[in-house]
Specification:
single chain, alpha+beta, three-stranded antiparallel β-sheet, 7 helices, 5 strands
Protein backbone atom coordinates (compact mmCIF):
# COMPACT_ATOMS: atom_id res chain seq x y z
CA UNK A 1 0.00 0.00 0.00
CA UNK A 2 2.88 2.39 0.81
CA UNK A 3 4.28 2.21 -2.74
CA UNK A 4 0.79 2.68 -4.20
CA UNK A 5 0.15 5.78 -2.04
CA UNK A 6 3.59 7.17 -2.88
CA UNK A 7 2.95 6.74 -6.60
CA UNK A 8 -0.50 8.28 -6.27
CA UNK A 9 0.83 11.38 -4.47
CA UNK A 10 3.72 11.83 -6.88
CA UNK A 11 1.44 11.69 -9.93
CA UNK A 12 -1.52 13.57 -8.44
CA UNK A 13 0.62 16.45 -7.17
CA UNK A 14 3.25 16.41 -9.94
CA UNK A 15 2.12 19.79 -11.28
CA UNK A 16 2.19 21.34 -7.79
CA UNK A 17 5.70 20.04 -7.17
CA UNK A 18 6.93 21.43 -10.49
CA UNK A 19 5.28 24.85 -10.08
CA UNK A 20 5.57 25.37 -6.34
CA UNK A 21 8.70 23.35 -5.59
CA UNK A 22 7.08 20.94 -3.15
CA UNK A 23 4.12 18.91 -2.01
CA UNK A 24 2.24 19.57 1.21
CA UNK A 25 -1.11 17.85 1.70
CA UNK A 26 -2.98 16.94 4.87
CA UNK A 27 -3.52 13.27 5.64
CA UNK A 28 -7.28 13.87 5.80
CA UNK A 29 -7.31 15.28 2.26
CA UNK A 30 -5.00 12.55 0.99
CA UNK A 31 -7.10 9.84 2.62
CA UNK A 32 -10.28 11.10 0.92
CA UNK A 33 -8.60 11.58 -2.47
CA UNK A 34 -6.84 8.22 -2.41
CA UNK A 35 -9.88 6.18 -1.41
CA UNK A 36 -12.06 7.98 -3.95
CA UNK A 37 -9.62 7.64 -6.84
CA UNK A 38 -7.79 4.39 -6.22
CA UNK A 39 -9.82 2.05 -4.06
CA UNK A 40 -13.18 1.96 -5.83
CA UNK A 41 -14.28 -1.66 -6.04
CA UNK A 42 -11.22 -3.01 -4.22
CA UNK A 43 -12.12 -2.04 -0.67
CA UNK A 44 -11.24 1.17 1.07
CA UNK A 45 -8.24 1.45 3.35
CA UNK A 46 -8.63 2.72 6.90
CA UNK A 47 -7.04 5.93 8.19
CA UNK A 48 -4.70 3.83 10.35
CA UNK A 49 -3.60 1.76 7.34
CA UNK A 50 -2.84 4.97 5.45
CA UNK A 51 -0.83 6.40 8.35
CA UNK A 52 1.12 3.15 8.77
CA UNK A 53 1.85 3.01 5.03
CA UNK A 54 3.06 6.63 4.96
CA UNK A 55 5.34 5.97 7.94
CA UNK A 56 7.04 3.25 5.85
CA UNK A 57 8.12 5.57 3.01
CA UNK A 58 11.68 6.00 4.34
CA UNK A 59 11.95 2.32 5.24
CA UNK A 60 11.07 1.38 1.64
CA UNK A 61 13.49 3.89 0.13
CA UNK A 62 10.74 6.22 -1.04
CA UNK A 63 12.65 9.32 -0.02
CA UNK A 64 10.72 11.97 -1.96
CA UNK A 65 7.96 12.20 0.66
CA UNK A 66 7.72 12.07 4.42
CA UNK A 67 5.03 12.15 7.07
CA UNK A 68 5.27 15.38 9.07
CA UNK A 69 3.25 17.22 11.70
CA UNK A 70 2.49 20.91 11.41
CA UNK A 71 2.26 22.68 14.78
CA UNK A 72 2.42 19.26 16.48
CA UNK A 73 -1.19 18.50 15.54
CA UNK A 74 -1.90 18.25 11.78
CA UNK A 75 -0.44 15.23 9.97
CA UNK A 76 0.74 15.98 6.44
CA UNK A 77 2.63 14.38 3.62
CA UNK A 78 5.37 16.71 2.46
CA UNK A 79 8.31 16.82 0.14
CA UNK A 80 11.51 18.70 0.77
CA UNK A 81 11.08 22.06 2.41
CA UNK A 82 7.50 22.64 1.27
CA UNK A 83 6.37 24.00 4.67
CA UNK A 84 9.11 26.65 4.61
CA UNK A 85 8.21 27.43 0.99
CA UNK A 86 4.53 28.10 1.84
CA UNK A 87 5.55 30.05 4.94
CA UNK A 88 7.87 32.24 2.84
CA UNK A 89 5.14 32.90 0.29
CA UNK A 90 2.66 33.88 3.02
CA UNK A 91 5.16 36.25 4.65
CA UNK A 92 5.90 37.82 1.26
CA UNK A 93 2.18 38.33 0.57
CA UNK A 94 1.67 39.95 3.98
CA UNK A 95 4.67 42.24 3.38
CA UNK A 96 3.21 43.38 0.07
CA UNK A 97 -0.41 43.47 1.30
CA UNK A 98 -0.45 44.46 4.99
CA UNK A 99 -3.75 43.61 6.64
CA UNK A 100 -4.48 40.67 4.34
CA UNK A 101 -7.10 38.26 5.62
CA UNK A 102 -7.39 34.50 5.14
CA UNK A 103 -9.45 34.82 1.95
CA UNK A 104 -6.96 37.23 0.36
CA UNK A 105 -4.04 35.00 1.33
CA UNK A 106 -5.74 31.92 -0.10
CA UNK A 107 -6.54 33.69 -3.35
CA UNK A 108 -3.00 35.03 -3.73
CA UNK A 109 -1.39 31.67 -2.91
CA UNK A 110 -3.61 29.89 -5.42
CA UNK A 111 -3.63 32.59 -8.09
CA UNK A 112 -2.15 30.25 -10.68
CA UNK A 113 -5.46 28.36 -10.78
CA UNK A 114 -4.12 25.08 -9.45
CA UNK A 115 -5.73 25.58 -6.01
CA UNK A 116 -2.91 23.60 -4.51
CA UNK A 117 -2.83 25.04 -0.98
CA UNK A 118 -5.84 24.20 1.18
CA UNK A 119 -7.30 26.41 3.91
CA UNK A 120 -6.15 23.94 6.60
CA UNK A 121 -2.52 24.16 5.45
CA UNK A 122 -2.66 27.95 5.17
CA UNK A 123 -4.24 28.31 8.62
CA UNK A 124 -1.61 26.06 10.21
CA UNK A 125 1.23 27.95 8.53
CA UNK A 126 -0.30 31.25 9.69
CA UNK A 127 -0.55 29.90 13.25
CA UNK A 128 3.09 28.86 13.08
CA UNK A 129 4.08 32.36 11.88
CA UNK A 130 2.15 33.90 14.78
CA UNK A 131 3.66 31.48 17.31
CA UNK A 132 7.17 32.22 16.00
CA UNK A 133 6.55 35.98 16.22
CA UNK A 134 6.83 36.62 12.48
CA UNK A 135 3.24 37.83 12.05
CA UNK A 136 0.83 39.83 14.17
CA UNK A 137 -2.95 39.58 14.03
CA UNK A 138 -5.60 42.24 14.25
CA UNK A 139 -8.98 40.75 15.15
CA UNK A 140 -11.90 42.90 14.08
CA UNK A 141 -15.59 42.36 13.43
CA UNK A 142 -14.71 42.09 9.74
CA UNK A 143 -12.27 39.24 10.44
CA UNK A 144 -8.66 38.56 11.29
CA UNK A 145 -6.02 40.59 9.47
CA UNK A 146 -2.32 39.72 9.34
CA UNK A 147 0.67 42.06 9.56
CA UNK A 148 4.45 41.59 9.63
CA UNK A 149 5.86 41.82 13.14
CA UNK A 150 8.65 44.35 12.78
CA UNK A 151 8.55 45.73 16.34
CA UNK A 152 7.90 42.95 18.84
CA UNK A 153 10.15 40.08 17.81
CA UNK A 154 10.07 37.03 20.05
Amino acid sequence: IAREIYGFVMTEFKEQKEKEGGILVTMVDLYAMYNKAMRIGTGLISPQEMKDACERFVQLGLSGLQLTKINKRVLCISSGRSFEFVKGKIITIVEVTPGADLLQLTQRLNDNGSNSWTIVIIMEVLQNCINEGELLIDEQISGIHYYINSDWKI
